[in-house]
## 1
Amino acid sequence: MSASVPIVRTVADLRAQVGEWHAAGQTVGLIPTMGALHAGHLSLVAAALSHYDRAIATLFVNPKQFNDPADYANYPRTEESDAAKLAEADAHLLYCPYPAEMYPDGFSTNVTVSGVSAGLCGGARAGHFDGVATVCSKLFLQSGADGAFFGEKDYQQLKVVQRFAADLDIPITIHPCATVRDPDGLALSSRNQHLSPEQRAIAPALYRAMTAAAADIAGGRDRDQALEAAKTAILAAGYNRIDYLEARRETDLNIEFSSGEPARIFAAAFLGETRLIDNTPIG
Ligand code: PAF
């Protein structure tokens, strides 16, 4: 366990450190985050350390991916405790850029990915994936890391990142990592801290209903019927609104797919003010 994790805040310092490691023949894995770290993020650090010599976590609350200014203002900022968790997880560096380092005056470039960013969270949160793709492409190019680690909980985000990294020929390997869940099935998320004890008790109903629908569809039940039954179960459990609950093909997130193709169920639903998302494979 390290005593503390070194922090850099400028592209020049980040590149100097990565340059030293590369010159010594060491490989580098990147874990992009917006902080408020939980065990899911720390599992990405562990995955990075198992593939690469060095692990860099990034912490930047990216204004470009929030469509609601209040949501951006209220996003938890917990740099000190995040740094302590990263030290404990043996990360080698924390990159916390200043907003002006990331988006200096005059910044006018936007990375837009079509296809996989349509619908699901891309439909509900206008401009969100442009913001994610723009900041992640900058993080990849600023760091020159060899690999980057993304959780499958944000599956659409993962597809967006894989798409632009391939399309823009960025020399980085994208590593998808399994969703980390509490024992009752709830996917770990920084948003879970907003749930009251009553809401926390209801929350696993989302994943329960999704896995039941996935098993039903894999067993031959009509897709629409299985998804309708899942929606009914989620609302009956106490969720107040479902943003979307859909089955999509894994490769390109197309809504049209045949039963032999790898597919997933995707959902976003509100428990009070808190919007939770999850996904699970069919079959
Ligand atoms: O998943 C997140 O925390 C963010 O979307 C990411 C990938 C760090 C980009 O800001």
## 2
Amino acid sequence: MYIKSEKSSNLNGEINVPGDKSISHRSLILASCAIGTSKINNLLESEDVFSTLYALKNLGVEIKKLDNTWLVYGLGLGSFSVVNPTLNLGNSGTGARLLMGVIAGCDLEATLIGDNSLSSRPMKRVIDPLIKTGAQIESNNDKLPIKIKGSKIPLPNNYISRLSSAQVKSAVLLAGLTSTGVTKYREPLLSRDHTERMLGIMGANIKTIQMPDKTWEITLKGLPKLKNVNFNIPNDPSSAAFPIVAGLIIPNSNLMIKNVLMSQLRTGLIKTLIEMGAKIKIINKNQMNGEEIANVIVKSSQLHGIEVPAERAPSMIDEYPILSIAASFARGKTIMNGVAELKYKETDRIKETIQNLNKLNIKANATNNKMIVQGVESDLIKGGIEIDSKLDHRIAMSFSCLGLKCEKPIIVRNAETINSSFPNFCRSMKKIGANINQHLEN
Ligand code: S3P
């Protein structure tokens, strides 16, 4: 499938974005570890989340949909059984890494496989800490396919990570659930904390403190009795990022996006855009499952370049490609610091973002840990090129948004990858006035 996106004059109205991807994965996994039936509403029904869902079914968990609610029949910690030992996680790094944590903590053996993108992503970051709990892991040079044999009683971990990665942190915590001791995990900057919040709601004894050296330590007491829960999943700020930026850069736009997750650990992009001069209003703040939500109002704005601090990276780690599109239409230079981790996402996002911008004659360059984008002086750019998603949904959607500001259309090839996080992207964008269409390849 390919997307053709073309010059659009204004974007207006309300746009629905789907449920949060991170919380969707976690609600299925944690509900599977609880005792009793959990109910999940607004689950993101995307390929990534279905990869986790099918993997859990292959581990013996019964999950089904009744009307609009997903029911997960949890049998308790350590109750998994192998129905099919090959778990295909498709494109999903979150699914693969979190499930490795679950398996490490159970008397199970399974092999994880994935698509070309996932099979080229680094897994040493989870292999190293999980081996410390007693799991046996065979990998293809620290990549998928990975065969993992968990231990019935995992050793309590005390792991100091040099990365601020919610996937690594969650894998360690999930393995720690079946340990008889206390698991400790430390990270330099606090990454998204959905696993910790959900475990707390489900009755686990879990605490986060900032250490004297400013790192963050999470402590989890093993063998909690996890109770079943009803989760309502807030809408995904990482998906909202696309209409937000499109609304800012297209003149005469006025958009509303409802019930967006407003966790401070996820909203670095909104903070950055406001610093760049974006007219964004956050209204109707509320709570949902221990997380803050709100409605976001966006109006077209003249942005200006800024320097984005490295410490903000974990709170906007998935948003740099679309921030680079906003930066392309800002006055002056935008400098994004602390972006080294982007190299290990669905593609090397530093390389793909910079190369694609350069193809469009937008001045952009990068070092190992920094991206710099020079805004164009004009309102529209020429366009008329093809972009290959290379199986990266966020690259596909970012450059589709850029096409709305081009004189000639942009074609995004291999665009079906957007189904991993935002299945109705084109339809939703069209509804607010975007000139964007998806087509089947001949
Ligand atoms: C995620 C964490 C982030 C993010 C990914 C989802 C999660 O990765 O990039 O899309 O749900 O835990 P890292 O925390 O590993 O950087």
